[in-house]
Design goal:
The protein is mainly beta and 113 residues long. It is built from 2 helices and 7 strands, in the order E-E-H-E-E-E-H-E-E. The chain has one domain.
């Protein structure tokens, strides 16, 4: 087991917001360390480029204008305290029910048909 592997601070179903940019979303997957392309990584301006040795999160994201999928480093995420559900159209594919008190979605049971 890799001792340097960090435990993810956020969990699947949690609603988060970006620390620098105006978007928020719900986490639907987590990579223990960077697992995207080098091209994607190098497209981030060097002065704000995150370290690769931290968890990265896949978000069903939204801003004021649109919904999309985002890939965000742990250092750039904060808990979203808005108590608002995420409007992304794919939320219902992954989750069921939003708990506004705990600010997270319950994973869908994919064993049910």
């Amino acid at each position: 087991m890799d001792r340097d592997l960090r435990t993810a601070k956020f969990r699947i179903g949690q609603v988060v917001k970006h620390r620098l940019f105006a978007f928020r979303g719900v986490i639907f997957d987590v990579d223990p360390t960077f697992a995207n392309t080098e091209e994607w990584y190098l497209s981030i301006p060097e002065e704000i480029r995150p370290r690769k040795d931290q968890p990265f999160y896949h978000l069903l994201a939204e801003n004021d204008d649109t919904e999309y999928v985002a890939y965000v480093s742990e250092q750039n995420l904060l808990v979203d305290d808005s108590d608002q559900p995420v409007r992304h159209p794919q939320v219902k594919e992954y989750f069921e029910g939003y708990d506004s008190r705990r600010k997270y979605y319950r994973m869908r049971d994919f064993r049910k048909h």
